[in-house]
Specification:
70% helix, mainly alpha
Length: 71
């Protein structure tokens, strides 16, 4: 693998709080299992939702307050 590709892969891995090795392992595992793109995306969505801890839709500002803050 060329240096630039590896550098970009390391950056993507860091964004996902993982390693390049873990990304490769997950990819090869899904490839070997015959996982479709849809199945992979569904699995990744579930994993991502598990990582979201501090979100509450009830804490969002009403639309009028949101626009009032911009002024």
């Amino acid at each position: 693998m060329d240096d630039e590709t590896y550098r970009l892969a390391r950056m993507k891995a860091a964004e996902r709080d993982t390693s390049v090795s873990a990304l490769v392992k997950a990819y090869l595992g899904s490839l070997a299992a015959g996982e479709s793109d849809f199945e992979r995306l569904a699995r990744e969505e579930i994993e991502l939702r598990k990582r979201i801890k501090d979100f509450s839709a009830a804490e969002r500002l009403p639309r009028d307050e949101l626009y009032a803050r911009r002024k």
